[in-house]
Design brief:
single chain; about 140 residues; five-stranded parallel beta sheet; 5 helices; about 20% strand; disordered C terminus
């Protein structure tokens, strides 16, 4: 098994939600995660041009991109990176829309434990690799 950390870009403007994700990932023994947190879509777009990430955890509604446009913009810019949407809305229509717009999965804030978060990240990376057909190397623990 590889010792390489899974690089996660968390795009979340709510400090409490960001802290919860950070603490949840820190409690997980394996796999190890390297979390980068930004609060705005513009910051996420900049980071995606400068760094490589294995997955993006994306809040749908951000201060600089209201009305859920953040998913479309991130997917258009970084279609090579799997996206997991974080939302406070438990709505099947919205969930279907996020998947149609390029997300690999979605999580409802406040209803996710550490095991579910890790499983979701793993599945998103696997799904994205399968869908894209790319030969991009994923962390060995997912191969």
């Amino acid at each position: 098994m590889s010792d390489k950390a899974i690089r996660v870009l968390l795009v979340e403007d709510n400090p409490g939600d960001a802290r919860l994700v950070r603490e949840t990932l820190a409690e997980i023994d394996s796999p190890q995660f390297e979390l980068t947190h930004v609060e705005r879509l513009s910051q996420a777009r900049q980071r995606l041009t400068e760094e490589e990430f294995d997955v993006v955890l994306l809040d749908l509604v951000l201060p600089d991109k209201p009305r859920m446009g953040s998913l479309i913009e991130i997917h258009d810019q970084a279609s090579r990176v799997p996206i997991v949407v974080l939302t406070g809305m438990d709505d099947e229509t919205m969930a279907s829309w996020t998947l149609e717009e390029g997300a690999q999965d979605y999580l409802i804030k406040g209803q996710t434990d550490g095991e579910s978060l890790v499983r979701c990240i793993r599945h998103a990376i696997q799904r994205h690799r399968t869908q894209s057909g790319k030969l991009r190397t994923a962390p060995a623990r997912f191969a």
